[in-house]
Design a protein that fits this description.
616 residues, alpha+beta, 7-stranded mixed barrel, 65% helix
């Protein structure tokens, strides 16, 4: 499935980044050990062999453990997929040598690259510097207004795309550009912006020269050069968790709403004349025969038919109503830049309209019934192919005509009789276009029975109408068949979103853990020195706790801000899947943000306790 191939690519990139991050943390803690090997007489080639042996053993242990756990979790995962997706047949988990081989190849490359990276660093390192590596002091980092400005511009560009875009297709096309700009801006601002802000606070003498702010700000300032990237990593991972989980949960949760909006009836059939058979003959033979076939096959199935409706319809998309004139799509006059006047149009005759609604409306030859979901017609007349008609506005269309494209106004036009409707269609066909417009014979009907029975009936009818019948071609749709296919897609998105969200949470936890331990060992000497020269122990504890809180709150606050600004573009993208409920998306985002904040808070409690134990 292409969706899971994309997820596999994301996991591969994430694995590379995380293993590099963990490796850099561990190698920094081992600098003194490696320097001691040098002093004791080991050559760098000997150290390379030691690290190589360790890398191979670590690789084999992690690979074997990972494959075994992958097989176990894979089976559990397929149980979850079968529970989430509404499918007639369950997915069966099977072990294949191909993914195992790809996993071995991927992690072989990653471990080889980290090994070569470590060897290069050791070859160019001085043994004395290695011995002091763990205790080497950091110089005060230099501020970089240029990087700060670039970060603001990059972040502003990403924000600007999200806040100004109003077209779902453009949103989908520009989403990754916006994400890239926000990620670049986040890294630049954490690396350059935090230093500028901390230096600005340092210049505030009345605020800075107090024990609490002095310890907190100085500690963060001298560490920021090294750990700003870690904070940015946490922020970006947090955004990925919030966005991936929220959007996929909203997509899955809105599935039923989308299905109900798209399918007024259980089944529908559109019949098209493909052999240019005269209309009267086509209706009398082929169309009526198909109607009887539907009734007979339904009677022979496990469901019963009810509410059988037939009518003739012409649907045309991407038209325009401008200056109270209907402009046909293929006339060459449609201005696609003017989105506000674009319409999706349904044409029916008055006789079919009365049959669908149970009304007995009448019209003269120059009058139409007219409905629009979004105002596009300013007056009480409309010109269609050079003929002006007065319009009587409808409050609502028949349910079977109510579907529409996102961002378009739905227009329903009811002609006085079928002859005038046919003449209008002939005028449309006078334009030089490959596609010929013609009335479709529409059939809508409901059935009784359980979902399983309706699904079996839908699959049977799908197979029956797959081939042309006589001189017709039919398009059959079943609500239950569509439901299964739609849940297949949205369930796959949901599973992938939650899986990647879980992966990103693990990454956030581990990066936070490594960062806290690293900072704890670096701060311990400095804090203990302050206590030896007379600084109150309670004050240092209070200052370090304040520092830890700020370092935890900052990535989460920025991540929530990024997610909030991303809301418009996320909404536009989800509207492609007919998820158009602001309430649903907002509720999902808030719920996921609260749950993630709770998890993040638990991580803060655990890791901050480890940090404080090291420091104190």
């Amino acid at each position: 499935m292409p969706l899971f191939k994309v997820g596999s690519g994301v996991i591969a990139v994430f694995s590379l980044i995380f293993i590099f991050y963990a490796n850099s943390f561990l190698m920094k803690r081992r600098k003194k050990e490696i320097g001691l090997y040098n002093i004791l007489g080991l050559e760098k080639r000997h150290i390379a062999r030691i690290i190589g042996t360790e890398t191979i053993l670590t690789f084999l242990a992690s690979l074997l453990t990972g494959i075994v756990m992958g097989i176990v979790l894979g089976q559990l995962t397929f149980y979850a997929i079968n529970f989430i997706l509404i499918l007639p047949d369950e997915f069966i988990f099977s072990i294949s040598l191909v993914p195992i081989g790809l996993t071995v190849a991927l992690f072989s490359v990653i471990f080889l690259v980290t090994y070569l990276y470590n060897i290069v660093n050791i070859q160019f390192a001085n043994p004395i510097e290695l011995l002091k590596g763990g205790n080497a002091g950091e110089k005060e980092p230099k501020s970089s207004p240029i990087l700060f400005l670039l970060g603001l511009l990059s972040l502003g560009g990403g924000y600007g795309i999200s806040l100004t875009i109003d077209d779902p297709i453009q949103a989908f096309m520009l989403f990754f550009a916006a994400v890239l700009l926000v990620i670049i801006g986040t890294y630049l601002l954490f690396n350059a912006g935090t230093i500028i802000i901390l230096k600005w606070l340092k210049k505030k003498s009345a605020f800075y020269y107090k024990p609490g702010p002095f310890i907190s700000i100085s500690g963060m300032l001298y560490r920021m050069k090294q750990h700003a990237t870690g904070l940015a990593n946490i922020c970006v991972l947090s955004v990925m968790v919030l966005v991936s989980v929220s959007t996929t949960v909203a997509l899955y949760s809105g599935a039923e709403q989308m299905i109900e909006l798209g399918f007024v009836n259980d089944n529908s059939l559109s019949i098209m004349n493909i052999e240019d058979t005269p209309v009267e003959e086509f209706e009398a033979t082929t169309v009526n025969d198909i109607y009887e076939m539907i009734k007979q096959r339904t009677a022979a199935s496990s469901v019963e038919m009810k509410e059988f409706q037939t009518f003739k319809l012409l649907s045309i998309y991407d038209n325009q109503i401008e200056n109270d004139e209907f402009i046909y799509t293929r006339s060459g006059r449609v201005n696609y830049d003017d989105e506000t006047s674009m319409v999706d149009t349904r044409f029916v005759s008055l006789g079919d309209y009365n049959d669908l609604t149970g009304q007995e409306r009448t019209l003269n030859q120059e009058e139409l019934l007219y409905y629009e979901s979004i105002p596009v017609l300013s007056g009480d007349t409309i010109k269609i192919e050079g003929i002006s008609y007065s319009v009587s506005r409808l409050d609502s269309p028949p349910e079977v005509l109510s579907s529409q494209g996102e961002g378009r106004s739905l227009v329903v036009i009811v002609f006085p009789d079928e002859e005038i409707l046919s003449n209008t269609i002939n005028q449309f066909n006078d334009y030089e276009a490959e596609y010929v417009e013609e009335l479709y014979y529409e059939v809508y009907w409901n059935t009784t029975g359980s979902r399983e029975e309706k699904l079996a009936y839908g699959n049977e009818m799908n197979e029956f109408f797959a081939d042309p019948i006589d001189d017709s071609f039919s398009f059959f749709n079943s609500k239950e068949v569509f439901r299964v296919n739609y849940y297949d897609i949205t369930g796959g998105f949901l599973f992938l979103g939650v899986y990647l969200g879980f992966l990103f949470i693990i990454g956030t936890v581990l990066i936070t853990y490594f960062k806290q331990i690293s900072e704890g060992y670096e701060d311990r000497v400095r804090i203990q020195a302050m206590q030896k020269v007379g600084l109150d122990s309670e004050m240092t504890k209070k200052a370090t706790r304040s520092q830890v809180i700020w370092m935890f709150v900052l990535p989460l606050a920025v991540a929530v801000m990024h997610t909030a600004v991303a809301y418009p573009i996320l909404y536009q993208m989800l509207s492609l899947f007919s998820v158009v409920s602001h309430t649903l998306l907002v509720t999902t985002l808030l719920t996921v943000s609260l749950v993630f904040s709770l998890i993040y808070g638990i991580v803060y409690k655990i890791t901050s306790k480890i940090y404080l134990n090291i420091v104190e």
